[in-house]
Amino acid sequence: MTVKIAPSILSADIMNLERDVRAADKAGADVFHIDLMDGNFVPNMSFSPAIIAGMRRVTDKPLDIHMMIENPDAYIKTVIDAGASTVLIHAESTQHIYRSIELVKKYGAKAGVVVNPGTPLETVKELFPIIDRILVMTVNPGFGGQTFIPGMTKKIQRLDQLRQTAADDNFDIEVDGGINSETIAQCAKAGADIFVAGSYLFNGQDGLESRIDGLRSVALEAKQ
After folding, report:
1. Rounded CA gap, 186 and 43, in Å?
2. DSSP string, 16-54
3. 64 in active site
4. Any idea which positions bind a divalent metal cation (predicted)?
C-alpha cells in the first residue's frame, strides 16, 4: 500500500526555507509539495521556478509542483527544466487539459490533474489512462492553514472506486488541504495515497520527525 507524506513549503519559514527543507528531508519527507500561484487563478501569489531550482540543489526528494496558474502550458517546460518531478495542473485552469498533460509527459516529468472541491470527477475521467496522479483539493485553493472540507472524503472514495474498476487506470490519489492527524485517517481509509501537509507539520511544537512519522503511522493504520 502507498503512503507518502508531502510537506508543503507554503507553510515553511520563507526566510529560512533551506533550513526547513533540509529539516523536513532529514525527518523523513517522501515528497516536497511546491505551490506556484499567480494571483489570478487563485487570490494569492507564491514562489516561482527559481524556488524549484533552489530546492533541487538541497534535496534529492521528488518535487511535486502544484500549478495554480492561468495558462499553465506556458510554464510547463520551465518548471520541469528547473527540477520538477511531477507537474500538477488544475482542470479548471485551461480549456485544453489533455494537451497540458501531454506536454508534461513530452518534457519528461510525471503528470497529474487537480480538481477543486466543486469540480466533479467526471470532468477529468477521460484523463485517467494517461495521468500519474490526481490531486483532490480538500480546501479551496490559494491559502494554507484552511479547514478540511468533510465532504471530500466521499469524493476520494468515489475516485478510488473508479480507479479500481478500470485495469488501465494506474494513478495515485493525492490530497491537499487541512491534513492533520485526524483528517489523514479519513483520507487514507477513503483511498488516498499521498498526503500534503503544511501548517500541521511546520507549525507544530513537537518537531517535524515526530509529526511526519505520526501522520504516516495513522495513514497506514487506516488503510489496514
Report:
1. 28
2. GHHHHHHHHHHTT-S-EEEEEEESSSSS-EE--HHHHHH
3. no
4. 33, 35, 66, 176
Residue 213 marked ligand-binding:
no
Give yes or no for a contact between 200 and 193, defined as CB atoms under 8 angstroms apart. no
**C-alpha grid cell, residue 88:** 500538477
E-assigned strand segments in 23-165 = 32-38, 45-46, 63-68, 86-90, 110-115, 133-137
C-alpha cell at 158: 468515489
Q: What 8-state DSSP symbol labels residue 132?
A: S
| Contact status, residue 63 vs residue 34, Cβ threshold 8 Å | yes
36-82 per-position pLDDT tens digit: 999 999 888 999 999 999 999 999 999 999 999 999 999 999 999 99
> Is 142 one of the annotated binding-site residues?
yes
172 is in an annotated binding site: no
Query: Exactly one of 20, 35, 64, 193 is catalytic; which is it?
Result: 35
Q: pTM higher than 0.90 for the full model? A: yes
Q: Which of 132, 172, 176, 193 is catalytic?
A: 176
Q: Is 108 annotated as a binding residue?
A: no
Instruction: Give me the chain's average pLDDT, please.
Output: 94
φ and ψ at residue 179, rounded to 5 degrees: -80, 125
C-alpha 217 chain-centroid distance = 19
* Block residue for cell numbers 510537506: 7
Q: Is 176 a catalytic residue?
A: yes
